[in-house]
Write a structure and sequence with these properties.
Oligomer: single chain
Number of domains: 1
Number of helices: 8
Shape: globular
Helix content: over 70%
Distance between the termini: 51 Å
Structural class: mainly alpha
Mean pLDDT: 93
Low-confidence stretches: none
Length: about 200
């Protein structure tokens, strides 16, 4: 790795925090909610996982060093807190359910991931120029964002798996994600409003 980017350690810290706040804790909470049959928390966490799948898509785009990954990463940071607070009915159910450890931990996590996402969005804005660069892999302050995804690729995928192939998978997933988001905003949302349970 090059050592010419002074903020490299901050970016790696951001990736480790993302693993904690965006993967490990919500996974534990989802299992806990199913065990305790806390339906409102279950529903909200399932919505969260659907929305946050854009983070996984971003990782695969970054493995291929695709500039669009900077846009998808920013959108994930924006959409995640929205998905956690948008639903009026789920917010009410969670607020009025009996106090307990699950509710306390879930509420703490929801606030923590919201603050983390807002700060992450603000910190990511200076790198948006990378999304419009033709030689993004040659720019040190852009390339540093690809280091953690490439390490993930080494851990999870076979060494023979091509970066470009994983990038194509990521791009296809992004197309599906965007199409569903458009359908949700212009069709589904107009029918159900801010109710997650209304059919």
């Amino acid at each position: 790795m090059n050592n010419d980017v002074w903020f490299r350690q901050f970016i790696w810290t951001d990736y480790w925090l993302a693993i904690l706040f965006a993967v490990i804790i919500p996974l534990i909470l989802l299992i806990w909610a199913f065990v305790q049959k806390a339906e409102a928390i279950q529903r909200l966490l399932i919505i969260y996982w659907r929305v946050s799948s854009l983070l996984a898509i971003t990782i695969y785009l970054m493995i291929a060093q695709n500039p669009i990954s900077f846009l998808s990463g920013l959108m994930a940071q924006i959409l995640i807190p929205i998905s956690l607070w948008f639903w009026v009915d789920l917010n009410d159910e969670i607020e009025y359910q009996p106090s307990g450890a699950l509710k306390l931990v879930f509420t703490s996590w929801r606030w923590a991931v919201t603050i983390y996402s807002i700060l992450g969005t603000l910190a990511f804005i200076p790198f948006l120029g990378c999304a419009f660069s033709k030689n993004v892999s040659q720019i040190p302050y852009c390339r540093v964002w690809f280091e953690a995804p490439l390490l993930y690729k080494q851990w999870v995928h076979s060494p023979s798996t091509k970066h470009g192939f994983l990038g194509i998978l990521g791009f296809m997933a992004l197309v599906v994600y965007v199409l569903y988001l458009i359908y949700f905003v212009f069709v589904k949302l107009s029918k159900q409003g801010r109710s997650a349970t209304q059919q």
